[in-house]
Structures are given as structure tokens and as C-alpha cells.
């Protein structure tokens, strides 16, 4: 990222959800969920980066089949308890939502591009007015492709007729930002929200 202030040519700000606008911390969930048990099953963390979890996000594997597969590696009830707790813990990140509201107040169109399973989407949809302020959203489970696969970025551009050079993407994973850049979409890696705010100031998106 250029450290010098740049001329602002952006019209569209695209947000990831997990780690940017929505809290997603499986390690914290495991620690809290199993804190009163004799042993904390840290191995469950491996499930989050597994092919099965990715396929649930992709919408090509349903929850019940995923449970059957995970049950071959982890105690069934422990995995179900963990998976339920992950979804119950999904909640807006105040710092991220504040950035979103400031960006929207300055007239930018805002979009979501998220690797998200159906159950997570249903949970987040219960949060009043969370999705309603966006101009559009692409959720991986609905389109059967996930970041950083090229198809999901192209779907976003095509669906909402966005010009890549007018779009800026904020995601917590550098690999997903790199995928966006392959389509001409600039990006900010959300290592923390103070960094995001500073980068948006450099781009003259925030004052």
C-alpha cells in the first residue's frame, strides 16, 4: 500500500464480514464454551480451516453431512457444541461498524463480499437493519464459490455493474485482497481497525 496520500477515485467500498464487521474468533469460543470441562478440545480449531468447513461456506455441503464427516475426527457432541457456539457468538464489531457508517455517511456505496455459510447468514439476518444499509452483497454459499477464487470477485463486479478501479475492498486476509487485486480492485488488509481507518484517510475516503 502506498504510504503517500492518493487521489480518491473510489465510489464503492466492499467489506468482508468476519474479522472486519463481524466478530469471528473460534479460539475464544472454544475457551469459553469448554471452560468448565476437564479438558479444552483445542483440536476443534482445525475444523474451521478444513475442507468441510470451506464446503459449507461454498454451499456444496450441508450441515448434517458435515457433522457426519467431522464425527470421524472429533467427538460428535463436542463438535456440535462448538459449531453452535461459533454461530451464537457472531456479532457486529463496534469499530468496524463505525467505519462502515462513516463511509456511508460520506456518500460511498457499500457492498459485502463474504465467505459465509447459510446458517451464519441466517444468524446475522436476525440483527436489526444490519444488511439493509448495503447496496448489495455476495455470499459464498449462495453462489457456490469462495474467496480467493476468481469467480466470486467477477460475480460481484458483474452483479452490481461495478468498475474495479472505482472499488476498494477491506478483508482481514491478505490472500483475499490479493485475489481482488487480480481483478483490478484495490484493497486494505484489516489487521486491526485503527490501521483500516488510517488507510482510508490516506485514500481521502475518511477525513
What are the defining features of this structure?
alpha/beta; Rossmann fold; 2 domains; five-stranded parallel β-sheet; 11% strand; disordered N terminus
How would you summarize the topology of this molecule?
Blueprint: E1 12-15, H1 26-33, H2 45-48, H3 51-58, H4 63-70, H5 76-88, H6 94-105, E2 109-114, H7 118-124, E3 136-139, H8 140-143, H9 150-160, E4 167-171, H10 174-181, E5 186-189, H11 193-202
Parallel strand pairs: 1-2, 1-4, 2-3, 4-5
Helix pairs in contact: 1-5
Query: Can you tell me the residue ranges where pLDDT is under 50 for at least 5 consecutive residues?
Result: 1-6
CATH superfamily of the largest domain: HAD superfamily/HAD-like
Estimate the mean pLDDT confidence: 94
- So what's the CATH class of the largest domain? Alpha Beta
Order of SSEs: EHHHHHHEHEHHEHEH
Percentage of residues in strands:
5-15%
Q: Report helical residue fraction.
A: 40-55%
Number of self-contained structural domains: 2
Rounded radius of gyration (Å): 18 Å
Discrete helix count: 11
Number of strands: 5
Major β-sheet annotation: 5 strands, parallel
Task: Identify the quaternary structure here.
Answer: single chain
Overall morphology: globular
Strand order of the largest sheet: 3-2-1-4-5
Pairing-aware structural class of the strands and helices? alpha/beta
Give the second-level CATH assignment, the architecture of the largest domain. 3-Layer(aba) Sandwich
CATH-defined fold name of the largest domain: Rossmann fold
| Cα end-to-end separation | 18 Å
